[in-house]
Amino acid sequence: TGAISSLQRQLEIQESELRRFRYENEMLQKQLREREDQLQAMSDKFCSLTEEQRKEEVMRMIEEKNQSLRQVVTAQESQLAKQNEQISDLEGTLRRLRIEAVTSRRHAQEQKQAQEEAKSQVEALQHKEVQTKVALERISSKFERLRSKIIQAAFSVEGQDLPQAELTEEQVLEAMQ
Question: Considering Cα of 97, then 98, then 104, then 105, what sign does the dihedral take?
Fold first, then answer.
């Protein structure tokens, strides 16, 4: 979940930068339109001058504006190219982060499933352990009863003395033989 949160934060940052670049792009286009409007206004202003003056003034102004606009357009094109490159990079990073987030979620889900399976196996083993202990105690009880009966049978024969101490299995076997 930490990796997923980190990836989501990176994703949000990248998306924020993408929005900022798009906003700047729109602002540059708006400025270009405003400059075109200014040029149109100046053109209208010069219409009132004499024809010759107007032509000369218009040509001079047009050349100045053209030069200025060329510079602005060149700068804006350069900035737009950079922004498009950054947008492309950000979109690539965004795709990569989304893939990583999906992979991280799937990995976390697989780990959770593996934990649940391990827990289930542990519970099954614990249940088998309890069953085995119960069966072992039952067998031990039967064994002790059988041993007791064998000892009684072996020492209930005439001429045999009852043992004074606890007997080993070898001693019981020897007495039976």
Answer: positive
How many domains are contained in the chain?
1
Q: For residue 58, which of 44, 70, 46 has the smallest C-alpha distance? A: 46
3-state helix, strand, coil in the chain (%, to 5): 90, 0, 10
pLDDT in tens, 52-83: 776 787 788 889 988 988 898 899 889 999 99
Using a 10 angstrom Cβ sphere, with 0-12 exposed, 13-18 middle and 19 or more buried, the burial of residue 7 is buried
Domain housing 69: 9-144
CA distances from 159 to 113, 150, 172 (A): 70, 16, 16
Whether residue 154 lies inside any domain: the answer is no
d(CA 146, CA 64): 120
Domain-embedded: residue 174: no
